Amino acid sequence: MTIPFPADFLWGAATSAYQIEGSRTADHTGLSVWDTFTRRPGVIEGGGDGSIACDSYQRWREDVSLLTTMGLNAYRFSTGWSRVMPDGTGGANPLALDHYDRQVDALLEAGITPFVTLNHWDMPQALMTGEDDGGWLARSTAEAFAEYADAVTARLGDRVSRWITQCEPWIVQLLGYQLGLHAPGIADVARSVIAGHHVLLGHGLAAEVIAANVPDPQVGVASSLFPCVPATDTEPDRAAAHASDGYVNRWYLDPLAGKGYPTDTRELWEGVLARRGAGFTLDDVILDGDEGIIGRRLDFIGVNYYTRRVCAAASGGDFPWKVVGPTGDVARSDEGWEIAPRAFTDLLLRLDRDYDHRPLVVTENGAVFGDGPTHDGKVHDNRRIAFLRDHLEALAEAMSQGVTVLGYLHWSLLDNFEWALGYRPRFGLTYVDYRTGERIPKDSARYYGQVARTGRIPAADPAIPAFG
Ligand code: IFM
Which of 74, 387, 429, 449 is in Cβ range 3.0-4.6 Å of 70 for a Cys bridge? Predict the structure, then answer.
């Protein structure tokens, strides 16, 4: 295949503050909802938390070296929200800003373009009201988020032009407020829709202050996007997949792209609220003018792609679908997620078509493969190499069909704290020995570095089978 990666293509890797930094109390860092949530018994597999993680708050220079050794020219990291705003509102913490200031300078000096994420889930605990209120359920949190965005971009905006306001609004709503599996641990399907709306509103308000602080800003949201495909080619399953697509993808993308909330999913949510006797409707939550604020600015669509959802019609629950598959002998990561690179091409083509050819940035793509060091001290993670090759070819295919993609940021630079799943799943290009903090670049890091340096995907190695 002819590889169309342009010379200025951004080849990078991504991380987030709570997942790698540790040092949770250094430099007057405030308590975050994840510091609190991880103390609840049984919520984290293996019982871990982010108190040490990869120790990157101390060892961040080593992380920059990993990027330069690979030859990457982009890095997505997040500023710790509760570090910068320990009390939620009312004044930023200069020591935390100094820290990120140094990091940005070092990246720029190394020729690495920073993508800074503002909310990668470590909200200040001070924005919660008790255990199960406040946070994104409170409209005022969208304003507090804009205040934080103002502090960070006023400090770094002279050198950083690419900003990601929110990471995965759907996942925040789903895991944080609907199922209670992530901080702040609220399980309330009706009120979760309020949280999701405020996350989007926070994007809109933050985008406005970013534009005021940053010359030539590029603002996006890193959206978790799951292509929803019907289990069978029947009308009920096709309708189920379309409804699920509304719930997962369009409910967030449409308003961010200035199209307002999609009518079918709005009706779906109104039905949920009525059945649950929520005592409020969406008109009480989505106020006049909100959709205008949310849709005001989206310079690129951030695509977090991991897998697809195979959906079949269902009845009797809140939502008219169930995720059924895929079934059978498909390639899967060590987390059991289907490896589906062709669905990645389809997703990119569809985003280009449905959202006015807006530029895309792959803000996350990766998989769990549990390989560790072998007798030679190296990590021979051939399956990650195959995963990378197949997804980069899928990306190249979409680009060769005319889709504008500005960059690819692999999740993740390092093995790290995978939220409720603790430290078991390893997503990194770099192996981390959590006892010592030692970093060991995996074979996939060398492979990816070769792609980044040459702009070419090496020919398939017959020893590494394709995922399809
Ligand atoms: O680790 C997470 C990340 O924080 C957000 N996107 C998905 C990744 C893998 O689950």
Answer: 449
> For residues 37-53, b (16+ Cβ closer than 10 Å) or e, as one string?
bbeeeebbeeebbbebb
Question: What's the half-sphere exposure (Cβ side, CA atoms, 13 Å) at 205?
Answer: 20
Residue 364 annotated in active site: yes
Question: pLDDT tens digit string along 359-370?
Answer: 999 999 999 999
Statement: 10-454 belongs to CATH 3.30.70.580: no
Locate all alpha helices (DSSP H) within 121-188, ordered by sequence.
139-156, 169-171
Strand bridging mode 430-432 / 439-441: antiparallel
Q: Please name the residue whose Cα sits nearest to atom 10 of ligand 1.
A: 418
Can you give the pLDDT at residue 328?
84
Nearest residue (by CA) to ligand 1, atom 2, is 418
Q: Output the pLDDT for position 384.
A: 98
User: Which atom of ligand 1 is least distant from the CA of 421?
Assistant: 10
Per annotation, catalytic residue among 21, 338, 364, 418 = 364
Q: What's the 310 CA to ligand 1 centre distance in angstroms? A: 20
> Is it the case that residue 168 has pLDDT exceeding 90?
yes
291 an active-site residue?
no
Amino acid found at 71: G
Q: How crowded is residue 278: how many other Cβ atoms within 10 Å of its Cβ?
A: 19
Q: Where does ligand 1 bind, in terms of residues with CB under 6 Å?
A: 16, 19, 167-168, 304, 364, 411, 418, 427
DSSP annotation string for 3-15: ----TT-EEEEE-
- The separation between CA 468 and the C-alpha centre of its own chain, rounded to angstroms, equals 24
pLDDT at 466: 65
What is the predicted pLDDT for the residue at 461? 65
User: Could you report the per-residue pLDDT of 192-213, keeping only the tens digit for each?
Assistant: 999 999 999 999 999 999 999 9
pLDDT in tens, 393-420: 999 999 999 999 999 999 999 999 999 9
19 Cα to the center of ligand 1, angstroms: 9
CB 403 within 8 A of CB 360: yes
d(CA 240, CA 321): 5
What pLDDT score does 1 carry? 54
User: 463 alpha carbon to ligand 1 midpoint, in Å?
Assistant: 29
Instruction: State how far the Cα of 236 lies from the Cα of 314, in Å rounded to an integer.
Output: 9
Q: From ligand 1's centre to the CA of 144, what distance in Å?
A: 24
Atom of ligand 1 nearest to the CA of 121: 4
pTM of the model: 0.98
